[in-house]
Amino acid sequence: MKQILQIPNPPPRVPPPASPPPDPYFHVALPTPLRSCNLSRRGLAITASSLPLLVSSFWSRQAQAIEAPAARISTQEADSATGDCGNQPVAQKAFLDVSIDGEPVGRIIVGLYGNTMPFGASRFATLVTGAAGISYRRKEFVKIVPSYIQHGGVRSYGVDAELAKRAGSNLGADNLVAEWEALSKKCPGTKNVAGSLGLVIRDPTKPPPKLKLVARKGKLEIDEEEVRPDPNGTEFVIAINDSPHLDASTLVVGRVLEGMDVVEKISRVKTVQENTSSPYFRVAKLIGDTRAVVAERGFNRPYSKVVVTNCGLAD
């Protein structure tokens, strides 16, 4: 005998919740369900391949909906925000005659921003004229990389320091650093653009001073030992391309007006290749081996002798 099971008093049916109204700003029409559940392998493959396209379309439209209300900044507002520091008025002109291995290659004429960068422009002008007791004359370019060339400037010791002392010149970079800080606040964008002239006043890679115990008047005191001296504000760089990485170390004091072809000739001089990727160099640098420091100073140094043969103020 067959027994029929019946559930007494079955629960009433609950209607499904009403779907929320469509978003007026963003709405994606979902695909209609298939009428039949019998899908072939090809149908399953086509449906699976269309899912990534649907998801990517969803997120791209959502991103456009989020970015739509962003405010637009006019060109005039952008210029005022960054400060037009790459095209400042030129108050003075100077020239540098350059030779490579004794062969003259041409003259570089630079314009100095004496009105907006008084300390930096004055420092460069006194070094090209010799008013500081020392000059860039017969001094070499010591570093050549694809984005800029760097001149060695004058030294803070030896004959250069003695000549500067006799002339009453100060090779410190305190005023230059203050001017660099003011420029950084005024111009948040790239300062070392193509053709700019800048003085090296800081060393961003300089490690903090080392602490050591010293005996003074019978007492032990903690003293700070300087790892290496700071730049004296006489080395200068000329940017070949926009070089934002120089903004942390150089103060832009002018720009090249004539002679970028000479700068290009200098940039093509062969140099000592970097070897920072070598594991031996990394270990030596990590343990503070002096040989690694000496080798690092020689990186990007030109094989040829690139010298400023003459310099001064231009008309």
List keywords for this structure.
315 residues, PPIase cyclophilin-type domain-containing protein, Cyclophilin-like_dom_sf, disordered N terminus, Cyclophilin-type_PPIase_dom, two-stranded antiparallel ribbon, 8-stranded antiparallel beta barrel, alpha+beta, peptidyl-prolyl cis-trans isomerase activity, 10 strands
Shape: globular
Which blocks of ≥5 consecutive residues have pLDDT under 50? 1-5, 23-37, 44-83
Q: Mean of the pLDDT scores? A: 77
Fraction of residues in H or I helices: 25-40%
Q: What is the topology, as strand order, of the major beta sheet?
A: 1-2-9-5-8-4-3-10
Find the count of extended strands (DSSP E, 2+ residues). Answer: 10
Output the number of helix runs.
8
Strand content: 15-25%
- Helix/strand class: alpha+beta
Protein name: PPIase cyclophilin-type domain-containing protein
GO molecular function, one term: peptidyl-prolyl cis-trans isomerase activity
Domain PPIase cyclophilin-type: 95-313
Pfam families: Pro_isomerase (PF00160)
